Structures are given as structure tokens and as C-alpha cells.
Amino acid sequence: MAERKIQAVLFDIGETLLTFGKVDTVALFKQGGKLAYDFLQKYNQPTGSLRFFLFRHLIIIHALNIWSNIVGRDFDSSYILRKTEQKNGVKLTESQWQDFAWCWYEPLSKLAQIEPDIKQTLNKLKQAGIKLGIVSNTFINASILDKHLAQLGLLDFFSVRVYSYQFKFRKPDGRIFVEAAKKIQVEPQNALFVGDRLNIDAAGALKANMIAVVKKAYTNIDKDIPQNVIKIERLAELPGIVEGINSRSH
Predict the structure, then answer these.
(1) What percent of the chain has pLDDT over 70?
(2) In 50-197, where does DSSP find H-type helix?
(3) d(CA 8, CA 131)
(4) In whole angstroms, what separates CA 227 from the centre of its chain?
């Protein structure tokens, strides 16, 4: 590590940049589905009963999740939602389709918390000449995630945002980390990746020859952190860690 110089810091989203904690996925699905159902009714679109509407989407998403776990790649949920409703006769404008997709995500977005000083942390890194990016395993469309990050005032910090559904692979596959390094224009060994899962974030970053950092979260409680992985309690520790590594580089 002494010969490395950190030029970029890449982040996971869930339980890293944003903290959601353990969530009731069934309740969130129902809440988002009800918002989406009401949205379609507002524009006089065919919906059928709420129960069937929710059941139809639940079956499709469940099947695609199984498929994703088998093949190791994610899907674009917004595209799937759109195609499903178009087959049901729904006709919306492009912006309305985006609003429809947001309805499903909105209940989850309201649970997100960020560190109170996260903007100061990210500013310190940028002022030190560090590029910032995101690498996230997700089936949520980029427009939805970017909208949420913008609402929190974080979007403009990240010049590169890599979402797994856009590729044929996902973390912990090292290729997605290498792809992010290319997009942010640094060598992988000069990038530091911050996530919360040892087997997905840390393992994948190490495969790509990045420095791996794990943030304390419910996903890694009571797990042994390997010596080649840096553990942090808060993102606010990152500027000091980067400065320490770079001060030792040749």
C-alpha cells in the first residue's frame, strides 16, 4: 500500500453513502405499488384491481430476481415496469414513465439517511484532487437513483456512476470495478473502494487491485475484517485515510 497513490474514491450506495437499515421489503413493495397504481388511475390508464396489479408485478420481479442470481447480472426494473404496463394498454409520455417508476422507489427513498457532514467529507476529498464515483449493484434505473442523489444534494459530487444493470456482470466480479476505473480515468490500484459487504464490495475491489474499505453497517456486524481491508465507522474518516496513504507513497 505504501507505493500507491489514491487518485479516486468509489462508493457503494446502500448502507454506505445512504443508510436504509433493515427494511420490510414487502411493505415497501405494497406502498410503492399503491403509489404507482394511483398514478396510473390519475391519468385514466387501465389498471384492473389493485390486488392483481401488485400480484402481477410481484411475480415478474420475483422471477427476474431468481434469474439475476443464476446468471450473475441485474436487470433494469424501469424497463420491465414499462413493458409490463404497455402490454396492459398503458400509454404515457416519457416523463410520465419516469414518474411512474419513481412511485415504486419513493417509499424506500424516504427511509434513507446520510451522515450529517457527508458534504463536507466529499468536499475535502475533491479539494484534495480526488475523483469521486459510484459503483452499485442495482436493478433501479439510473434516472431514479440520480434523482434521489440530487434530492440529497449529492449527485454533483460524482462524475462517474456505474450501475450494475447497465452491464453483463456485477459485484463482486472484478470487471465492474475495472470498468469504473476506466470511466473515472485512473488505474485500479490508484482507486479506493468503499462499501459495506465483505463478500461483494471488499472482495470485488481486491480482485480489481483496488484498496478496499468497509463501512460499519448491519450487513457486516460481528464479521471478521481481513487485514487487507480497512474498516471505518463513518465516511468522515476517509479524507484522513487517503491523506495517510498518499503521504507514504513514493
Answers:
(1) 98
(2) 50-71, 77-87, 94-109, 118-127, 142-151, 174-184
(3) 4
(4) 26
Length of the chain: 250
As given in the structure block, the three cell numbers for residue 29 are 413493495
Angle at 130 between CA 129 and CA 136, to 5 degrees: 160
* Cβ proximity of 105 and 222 under 8 Å: no
Contact 202, 208 (CB under 8 A): no
> 3-class SS at 37?
helix
CB-based contact 103:27 (threshold 8 Å): no
In whole angstroms, give the CA distance from residue 27 to residue 187: 42
C-alpha cell at 125: 476529498
Handedness of CA 86, 91, 92, 94 (dihedral sign): positive
At 250, is the pLDDT very low, low, confident or very high (cuts 50, 70, 90)?
low
Q: Is the pTM of this model over 0.70?
A: yes
